[in-house]
Design brief:
It is a single chain. This protein has helices at residues 2-13, 23-26, 31-37, 41-49, 64-70, 74-82, 97-103, 107-115, 130-137, 140-148, 164-170, 174-182, 197-204, 207-215, 230-236, 240-248, 263-270, 273-281, 316-322, 326-334, 349-356, 359-368, 382-386, 394-406, 421-427, 431-443. The protein is mostly helical. Among the domains are: 23-146, Serine Threonine Protein Phosphatase 5, Tetratricopeptide repeat (Alpha Horseshoe); 153-252, Alpha Horseshoe (Serine Threonine Protein Phosphatase 5, Tetratricopeptide repeat), CATH 1.25.40.20. Helix 8 packs parallel to helix 10 (140-148).
């Protein structure tokens, strides 16, 4: 009545009154919530005895029960429920006591909340359900309780389309993965991006889940929307165990990544000797080639293994040489890899090694491919690519240059871009390479075609 009288008086006088807060908001009693947040058992008990409102809420909608559950204060939560606290009160994010208990993997509290009428199918504002949250937290007990009370194991959150089984696989909870399958989870469900539970398990390097999923019917050759297969995903993450498990489960060794590299190319490039041997044992082609490059030579920086992009038609042996993996090179050669093969632009195994390997690997490359006079279609020689660091130190680069020079490699040729090894080293810069090449050329009684500008 007071507010109405003031309102009428303001209209008569032409005043503008500020909006007054609602009476119930002014009288909100959050003392119980504060006692829970402080874990103040004495104040909490006194407020309950004084019949404080157990369902009072903070501005964000959180209740005393929500805070008790979040903080793992079971005794407080029990007392609140006994006093009539709402087990389904949701804050502005849709968080309920059930979802909070699920996040804490608190099976005992979930059981109590469900008995008090908590909704097992509850979800946050973004569609993440309580059972998803429990699966991500790794609690099979909570998952089972929620499912027994009506939670849907195959529900998908709307944004990414991920299911409970995906949540469990993504976190590497293999026991939850197995339990969800027993509860009827769909092993072939795919997210909006095409990720299946098996893909999530591959990303996590969870061998147990991979085997469980495949045994339950998951397709080891399912394609993501990008076309990538699970074994490629595992290899891109350098998860050897996952890749081996997928291969054992029937993954196709002939699949390629989006760049056209085979599984053997990828394993050779990262130096995964265990995986290389496994692929070779399954008769992967040691002479497989990457696709031809459609880019003009100039767009590749004048060379396949130098500073520019990689040339097409590379073999696993070239990739292993470039990445300084001598053990992988030896395994490939033993399996029939041909050291005489060249990439699309004429890059050889020796040139690949010169571009990124250290001296020991370079010596082996020379042993199987002693052609130091190779020239690519862009006019690059082994010395042009040898001056680049590519993960090496300057002294390591100098060792490679010295070895090539000692074995007759040309020192001062100009490529089609009009650059000599010194010019390339000068621009990087790799000062020790510039100094050594200048010294070697001068010792022959010659003058560098493009002297250093440094």
């Amino acid at each position: 009545m007071v507010r109405r009288a003031l309102f009428l008086f303001a209209i008569v006088c032409g005043w503008t009154l500020p909006v007054l807060p609602a009476l119930h908001a002014q009288q909100r009693d959050v003392r119980l919530i504060e006692a829970v947040k402080r874990r103040d058992q004495k104040a909490f008990a006194a407020l309950l005895q004084a019949k404080a409102d157990v369902n009072a809420v903070q501005p964000d909608g959180a209740t005393a029960l929500a805070w008790a559950v979040h903080l793992g204060e079971r005794r407080m939560a029990e007392a609140l429920l006994a006093a009539g606290a709402d087990a389904n009160a949701a804050d502005e994010y849709g968080e309920t006591p059930v979802t909070l208990a699920a996040a804490n993997a608190d099976a005992a509290l979930v059981q109590r909340l469900l008995a008090a009428g908590g909704n097992a199918r509850g979800a946050r504002w973004n569609g993440e359900t309580a059972v998803m949250i429990a699966a991500g937290a790794g609690s099979l007990d909570v998952v089972r309780q929620l499912v027994r009370h009506g939670a849907d194991v195959n529900a998908a959150e709307p944004r990414g389309g991920q299911t409970t089984l995906m949540w469990a696989a993504a976190e590497g909870h293999s026991d939850v993965v197995a339990g969800l399958i027993e509860l009827g989870a769909n092993v072939s469900a795919a997210s909006r991006a095409g990720f299946t539970p098996l893909v999530f398990a591959a990303i996590k390097d969870d061998v147990a889940s991979i085997r469980t999923l495949i045994e339950a019917g998951a397709n080891p050759n399912v394609a993501l929307r990008s076309g990538t297969r699970p074994v490629i995903v595992a290899m891109q993450y350098q998860h050897t165990a996952a890749a081996l498990a997928l291969l054992e489960g029937g993954a196709d060794i002939m699949v390629r990544d989006r760049a056209g590299s085979t599984t053997l190319h990828l394993a050779a490039q990262v130096g995964d000797i265990k995986l290389v041997r496994a692929l070779l044992a399954k008769e992967a082609d040691p002479n497989a080639r990457t696709p031809k490059s459609m880019a003009p030579a100039a767009a590749r920086g004048g060379g396949g293994f130098g500073r520019g992009g990689a040339a097409g038609e590379q073999t696993p042996l070239m990739m292993a040489a470039r990445a300084d993996h001598e053990d992988v090179m030896r395994a490939l050669v033993a399996a029939g890899a041909d050291p005489a093969r060249k990439a699309q632009d004429g890059t050889s195994v020796l040139m690949a090694a010169a571009a990124g390997a250290r001296l020991t690997t370079l010596k082996y490359a020379y042993e199987i491919d002693p052609h130091v006079d190779v020239v690519t279609t862009t006019g690059n020689t082994p010395m042009h690519v040898a001056v680049a660091l590519n993960g090496r130190t300057q002294p390591e680069v100098v060792e490679v240059i010295a070895f090539l020079a000692d074995h007759g490699a040309r020192l001062d040729e100009m490529n089609r871009a009009g650059r000599t090894p010194i010019a390339i080293a000068d621009g990087l810069p790799v000062d020790l390479a510039v100094d050594l090449l200048t010294k070697l050329i001068t010792a022959r009684g010659e003058v560098p075609k493009i002297p250093s500008k440094r």
